[in-house]
Amino acid sequence: MEACVHENEPLRLRLSCLDRDAPKTALRTSSLAVPTEESPLIASSQPVSPSCCICLDTVRPDDLVHSIPCRHVFHAGCLEFWYLYENDNCPLCQRPLLPQAAGGGNGGDPGGRV
């Protein structure tokens, strides 16, 4: 796998790999805007506003989110901060954040090392 940016910029490299494999989009235009579960506590006609479990604030329709495999929703900046501290798994379900890590690729190592 080719390096995303210069080797002397490990944080930028890590973020560019997150952006490449889990692209950012506004929640409103994301497939994540469609709820995957229904709750008997919320009427189906009520709009669902997910909250970010990292900062505990509401994720609004125009907020940027990353499209991660498990479909959990976090603010893009919150997830980037989480990911920069070597957290390669979803804060909620612990599934890999990046698809190649889930498929047994390079284990989430942005440099492609095994």
UniProtKB/TrEMBL annotation:
Please list the GO terms describing molecular function.
zinc ion binding
State the PROSITE patterns in the record: ZF_RING_2
- Say which domain of life the source belongs to: Eukaryota
Q: Does the keyword Transcription apply?
A: no
Q: Which is an annotated Pfam family here? A: zf-RING_2
Q: Which residues form a coiled coil?
A: none
Descriptive protein name: RING-finger domain protein, putative (AFU_orthologue AFUA_5G14845)
List the taxonomic lineage: Eukaryota, Fungi, Dikarya, Ascomycota, Pezizomycotina
